[in-house]
Specification:
The protein has one helix and twelve strands. The chain is mainly β. The termini are far apart. 24% of the residues are buried.
C-alpha cells in the first residue's frame, strides 16, 4: 500500500494542473501571392489592377528586363507596383513584423528609368516617426538586384490583432514577403477574442 500524499504535495499537483501552458514565440511568413503560412490570409492590394504578379505563375506579365531570379524569391513570386500611392495591407496577430522587398539599381535597356524605392508604413493607423519610411536611391553598385531587403520592422508590440499598411510613394516597389512573430496558438485564446488596436492618425 502506498503512503498517503502530504497536503503540500496535493496542493502543488493541483496548482500545476491549473496553471496555463507557457506561451512560446513562433514565426510565420506572409507570402506576396500565397499568403499567411498559418492562417491563409493574403495581402490586400489596392487598387488591385495597379499591382502586377511576377514569378513562374505569371509568365510574360512583366518586362523581362527586370530579370529577377525566382530561386532567390520567397516561393518564387513577387508583386510589383509602378504607380504612386498604391497600398498593400498586412493583417496579423502577434508582437512583431518584418517586411522584405526586392531592390533594383538599374533596368537593362532602360537607363533613364528610375528604380528608386520610396515607401511609407502605417501600423494600426499610426505613421509618426522616421522609422515608418524607407528610401532606396538608385545607385551604380555592381550588385544590380538585392533580394530579401528588410524595408520595415517593428517589435515589442502588444499581443493583439494588427494591421500594417505599406504605401508606394514611387516609382518602384517589389514586395516579396513578410515575417511576423506570434505566440503558440495552443497556449493562447483564439485570435478572434483578442483586442484590435484602435486605428488613429497623428
Amino acid at each position: 500500500m502506498l503512503p498517503p500524499l502530504s497536503f503540500g504535495a496535493i496542493l502543488f499537483a493541483l496548482l500545476l494542473a491549473a496553471s496555463p501552458p507557457t506561451a512560446t514565440a513562433v514565426n510565420h511568413t506572409i507570402d506576396d501571392t500565397f499568403g499567411d503560412s498559418s492562417t491563409g490570409f493574403r495581402p490586400q492590394y489596392a487598387p488591385g489592377f495597379q499591382w502586377s504578379i511576377g514569378g513562374p505563375i505569371c509568365t510574360n506579365c512583366l518586362p523581362t528586363s527586370f530579370d529577377l531570379d525566382p530561386k532567390q524569391l520567397f516561393n518564387g513570386t513577387y508583386h510589383l507596383a509602378l504607380s504612386q500611392n498604391v497600398t498593400l495591407t498586412l493583417n496579423f496577430t502577434g508582437t512583431a513584423i518584418y517586411v522584405y522587398n526586392v531592390l533594383v539599381n538599374s533596368i537593362a535597356n532602360s537607363p533613364n528609368f528610375s528604380t528608386t524605392t520610396n515607401l511609407t508604413f502605417a501600423l494600426d493607423g499610426v505613421r509618426s516617426t522616421a522609422s515608418t519610411s524607407f528610401v532606396h536611391a538608385q545607385t551604380n553598385l555592381n550588385s544590380n538586384i538585392t533580394y530579401n531587403a528588410l524595408v520595415y520592422s517593428t517589435a515589442s508590440l502588444p499581443y493583439a490583432n494588427h494591421s500594417l499598411v505599406m504605401t508606394n510613394i514611387g516609382p518602384l516597389c517589389f514586395f516579396d514577403y513578410a515575417i511576423y512573430t506570434t505566440q503558440n496558438a495552443s497556449a493562447l485564446p483564439n485570435a478572434s477574442t483578442l483586442p484590435r488596436v484602435s486605428p488613429h492618425l497623428r
